[in-house]
What we know:
Elements: H1 5-13, H2 25-33, H3 39-46, E1 62-70, E2 73-80, E3 85-89, H4 101-106, H5 118-127, H6 135-156, E4 171-176, H7 180-185, H8 188-202, E5 206-210, H9 227-239, E6 244-248, H10 255-267, E7 272-274, H11 282-291, E8 295-298, H12 305-313, E9 319-320, H13 330-342, E10 346-347, H14 357-366, E11 375-377, E12 392-394, E13 401-402, E14 405-407, E15 416-418, H15 420-423, E16 427-428
Parallel strand pairs: 4-11, 5-6, 6-7, 7-8, 8-9, 9-10
Antiparallel strand pairs: 1-2, 1-16, 2-3, 4-14, 12-15, 13-14
Helix pairs in contact: 3-13, 5-6, 8-9, 10-11, 12-13
Amino acid sequence: MKLSRRKFITNTSLFSGAALMPVTSCAQRDTIQAGLPDYLKLDKILGQPVFKKELFPEPVILASVEVLVKESNCMYRVRSKDGDEGISAGHPFIACSSYPMVPRNLAPHFEGKDARDLDQLIFNAVEGNVKRQGIPLNVHVAGIEFAILDLMGNRANKPAGQLIGDLLRTEVPIYLGHHYSNLRKLEPEKSLALMQKDAEDTSARAIKLRAGLGDNLASNKDNAPGRTEKLIRMAREKFGDDMVLMIDGNGSYSVKEAIRIGKILEEYNYDFYEEPIPWDWYEEQKTVERALNIKMAGGEEEFGIHAFRYLIGNEVFQVLQPDLFYFGGMVRTMQVARMVESSGLSITPHISGNGFGFLYMLQMVSVCPAAYTYHEFKLFDTKDANGDNIPIESKTGPFVSNDGVIKVPMGSGLGVNVDPDYLKTHTVFRG
């Protein structure tokens, strides 16, 4: 097969590796010759600190970690012993199913501890709950972490992102990643008309569409025969050659069908192809990646650092997409970003719509090494899990998209104040 520039770079940079654990120089040379990934390099990166403890000369002891509940909605509040407070909004549709874990299984990993040790606290909270690991746990780890970053950012008078990395960008170019149900269920003419309106309102220069049924079962099904092929073609015709287009399969396809759709995407010059194969079919996804020249994207559903270590080391994807909630927060996402950078790949953190998703994304991307050109945006919607707006006040001005670019909020912490009266409508869940 003729090699594209992407494939050439892959094949010349991937095989610089070593073994999983420290070995003798002779054994290391053997693994390099065998073409194994450089896991030693990635492990060294994972051992580096993330949270900037040096910004805080004195301990910041966490007095309480609370989840505030109202029907299906969860908010998080952390307080220090000397009276500082941080607030964050929970995941808009998963947190409600597992919030009893906060007081029972997570708060003990943080309460009475020094918030400056955030890296270790996050590690302990995730790895110390080995029998409970997964997305339902991680969304609460992330919620607690976001609230701690809000508290510590307010204390240091710095944006949350700058507590875990150096400021690399003050503006974030976006891709529209919403309308996923409409893009799959409505006829392409109708769904693309909805997306066009939002593209005009935001001046977005990139759009992500949806392929297949999105069932993560490799069913090779569509809501109507040929709908995906029609959507691919019509989107390019409607938005023109200057619009950056990508598409998400959400695990719709088998290897053979994923490759067939991928060839069509290449024909219409799509930018990346996201998770055509069920998310944990690693070997099958690598087979698809080898067969295509389009960039492959994925990692949204991953909740373990070891999985990203494998995906990056073996270049299963060229664009990594850890979800800021599902993966357990910004500290862990920064670890992925550093591994990505060392491997010559790219990262664009995944977010869920509603709540504070866009805030978390902006803070993360502002300091994210190896950031991809565009980042997921699902509109400035702060609706909580009950469909109510979370009333916030920006510390640095209104949130707007100008020419498809959003300014990173430079106020302290998460950059917003939450209306205290809204929080009073919630009840602290104590287990």
